[in-house]
Amino acid sequence: MKQLRLFLLLAAGLFLTSCSEPQPDEFPNPDPPPTVGRHAVPIDQALGELHDLLGVIDGQGTRAGGVRTIAQVQTLHAQALALTRSASEPGEQPEELLYVVNFEDDAGYAVLGADDRLPGVLAVTDEGSLTTEELVRAANGQTTPEEFTFPNEMLMNYVSGIGGIGGGGIGGGGIGGGGIPTGPFTDFDTQLGNPPAGFEGYEWSDWKNLEYVAPMVTTRWHQEDPFNRHCPVIGGETCVAGCAAIAMAQIVASNHLHHNVSPGRIGNISLNWTLIRQGIIDPDLLNRNSSIANQVALLVAALGLKLGMNYGVTQSGASIDDAEYCFKYIGYKGVNNHTFRPSYVRTMLWERQRPTYVRAVNAQKEGHAWVADGWLYRRRDQYAVIFGKRSDYSVSNQTQTLMHCNFGWGGRCDGFYHIGLFNTNEQAVIPDIDYTPVDDDYNGGKRMITYTEMY
Questions:
Q1: What is the gyration radius of the CA atoms in the chain, in angstroms?
Q2: What pLDDT digit, counting tens, does each position of 162-179 carry?
Q3: Domain span(s) for CATH 3.90.70.50 in the chain
Q4: What is the spatial distance between Cα 260 and Cα 269, in angstroms, rounded to a whole number?
């Protein structure tokens, strides 16, 4: 029987405190009007909670291979279960029940709630794989124990229960014998026992920052004028600077501003850091003072040359191996090129408090490099409200692990994201004030560069 690494569900209608719990408005008043899709959990949100959890259970020396990488995600739809409740019965029937996530290298799988009346993470295993087809066959009683070895019989029974087997599906009562609870009294009974008189629902506390490093990069540079002024010209057009050069330039500029360390020369190009510093402190000077703008553009071009940038008028690119070489060339120590891992991000941003270089590819396999420069690990607690007053003890809590991104697009899309989930077509968890989305995402092939010292 496959061993569970983490199991967040108990029998007999009990929830354990988990990394993520439903929001307050997810516990409606009794007999709410039906709203289609109101309880659906977007896959990005579900995967964000899983990433936060994996950062804890995989990222602190407990797993030799570090934080696992997602290979495949499948969705278990309600209609796949043979005994789901008919639409004529009371309560809201979900369209999607669970997400089944398999990790690369046969490193196990996770089962996540696709409906906010379910726990965010039901199970995470250390080995093996699982498909929704196997889960459905088991839940519908179409397999024998010899044919399908599930990591925990309790979880299989739970899946049967939420589909309506043995008690009425979602909205019908307790876990395992009646599906997902929806009314506040049912929920309170599930978590705390029989509700006292005056129970009114739940309330979240404000977020409490447990670990916080504010964004270290103050610049909002981009790839066009004035930053590409010294880049090559092709067919009468100046090439764009390249995301790798902009990311490196902003890291070097930040370390100069905060730690007063910077390369006086890069190759044959001498740099005037007195002028560059003025451009870092007052970005408006880049538009008004040509000497300052030219020096910043020289820094970007010098780094581009050492990166071996493949210049173009619409795209300019360099590999992360080129970036690793360039960091070493300008004098950074302990430089390493890693698979992206939350534990490495925490080391750079929280422990060393140094901005770091990240690259990834989008769904079209197009790469982008940017800067990770801020860290936030925070928690909030959920309380019962009785006669208008919050209870003295919490019934659950939620944590988030967030990373601030400076994408090198002049401030567009900058903000705090779930670590490992960089969907720029959606608003960041905590967006910068003038956040503007870009229709893209960079969640594949993630790598990063770490370093210990600067010169």
A1: 26
A2: 544 333 333 333 333 333
A3: 213-454
A4: 19
